[in-house]
Amino acid sequence: MLAATCIALLVSCSSPPPLLNSERIEQRFGSYGVEVIRADENIRYSSLHSLENGEPVTRTLAVVEFADPMPAPLRAAHQQIVSGESIGATFKSAGWSIDKPLLGYDVLAASPRFGRVYELMGLDEPAPLAVHRYRLQLLQGDEALEYATISEIHSPAYLTAEEVREIYGQPSSGPTTTATAVDDLLAPLLEELSSATGSAGG
């Protein structure tokens, strides 16, 4: 009986960690890439995409608010990320473990305002978009450092609100509203994308 209990504990302890978003996209769609759409020293907007008929289709639009100041042990990896590398993959390869304390969930209601986002996601018409926000913390030995606050806006072809909740569980502080915060964060990107479209059309 004791041996069986020990084996059960070993199996439980050896369960694989949750997939990174990049890993989940590749597993579901067969490919993965990241493209930085807009970035400065404070914030990065990026498309986490897979290829469909050779073209990138956004599965998650990620808005990353970087820690300020950036902790010294993270600066080298941070430069790679600012240059366009995947956040999760970069820190994982550098030996950091990743923790994602959840801040909250919400849904961006379907609206023509997000037309350019829908285009990136390959959607033909407006649709509700599941969003969630979390802190990205990095752990190595006795060190625990906060890197960023991240908001992820998911294509309904990838993750629905129900699926997001199943994957990430409940916020430790209880449900919170994130749609207003994410809407505000998206404003500069939407303006830039609209301007780019107008310039190309003109």
Give the CATH class.
Alpha Beta
Number of helices: 7
H and E order:
HHEEEHHEEHEEHH
Radius of gyration: 18 Å
Approximately how much beta-strand content do the residues carry?
25-35%
CATH topology: Chorismate lyase
**Terminus-to-terminus distance:** 76 Å
- The shape, in one word, is globular
Notes on the structure:
The chain is an alpha+beta fold and about 200 residues long. It has a single domain, classed as Chorismate lyase (3-Layer(aba) Sandwich). It contains seven helices and seven strands. Strands 1, 2, 3, 4, 5, 6 and 7 form a seven-stranded antiparallel sheet that branches. It is globular and about 50 Å long. The relative contact order is 0.15. About 5% of the residues have low confidence.
Q: What keywords describe this structure?
A:
alpha+beta; 202 residues; Chorismate lyase
In short:
The protein is an alpha+beta fold. It is 36% helix and 31% strand.
Topology, element by element:
Layout lengths: L1 H12 L7 H9 L3 E7 L3 E10 L2 E12 L8 H8 L4 H7 L3 E3 L2 E7 L6 H6 L8 E12 L2 E12 L6 H8 L10 H23 L1
Antiparallel strand pairs: 1-2, 2-3, 3-7, 4-6, 5-6, 6-7
